[in-house]
Amino acid sequence: MAIAKQYLKTKPVCKVTFTVPAEEAKKVAVVGDFNNWNPKGSMLKKLKNGNFKGTFELPKEGSYEFKYIIDGNYVNEAEADRYQWNDYAGSENAVLEL
């Protein structure tokens, strides 16, 4: 799994690209604080090499808890900036620092 950040000079946003290797998966979405944990509109596209990939513009200077949903299972990003306990979920969430 990987995260790439591209800060834009013309707008107060960061383009964040999420890449998830999941050859056997049918659906992968990224959900978090930035989209109210709603997978609608946050599905990643499956590439020919078996990876799922998607790019989203997120406001700069914030931190966001997030997880991937891979075929219905919540999975953390291995290369997250940090992890934070979430009482509501009863588990740790990955955190993205922008």
UniProtKB/TrEMBL annotation:
Q: Which UniProt keywords apply?
A: Hydrolase
Coiled-coil blocks: none
Protein name as annotated:
Glycoside hydrolase
Q: Which SMART domains match?
A: CBM_2 (SM01065)
Gene3D superfamilies assigned to the protein according to its UniProt record, in alphabetical order: Immunoglobulins (2.60.40.10)
Could you cite one Gene Ontology molecular function of this protein?
A: hydrolase activity
Q: Give the originating organism.
A: Pelagihabitans pacificus
Q: What is the lineage of its organism?
A: Bacteria, Pseudomonadati, Bacteroidota, Flavobacteriia, Flavobacteriales
InterPro entries (alphabetical): AMPK1_CBM, CBM20, Ig-like_fold, Ig_E-set
Q: Which residues form the CBM20 domain?
A: 8-98
State the PROSITE patterns in the record.
CBM20
Q: Name one Pfam family in it.
A: AMPK1_CBM
